TrEMBL record:
Provenance organism: Maribacter caenipelagi
UniProt domain NIF system FeS cluster assembly NifU C-terminal: residue ranges: 10-76
GO biological process entries: iron-sulfur cluster assembly
Family to which this protein belongs: Belongs to the NifU family.
Name the UniProt record assigns to this protein: Fe-S cluster biogenesis protein NfuA
Signal peptide per UniProt: none
Amino acid sequence: MTSVELKLNVEKALEEIRPFLQSDGGDITLISIDDESSVKVKLEGACVGCSVNQMTLKSGVEMTIKKYAPQIQEVINIAD
């Protein structure tokens, strides 16, 4: 898989999860993909101060990204 394909797959994963975040007043943005194994995202809106955002990140976002791009090892939330 090329880095372009990888980015497209990660974006597809984020598109799948975005409606759930938006229904709670939040959103997510892809910041970068490092070494084709680590994805950096930024949780936005209501997700920023949400006490369950780490759980959302691991169980929802990371799981969905790995479904589309199995080589991804970790998903990191970049806080402000």
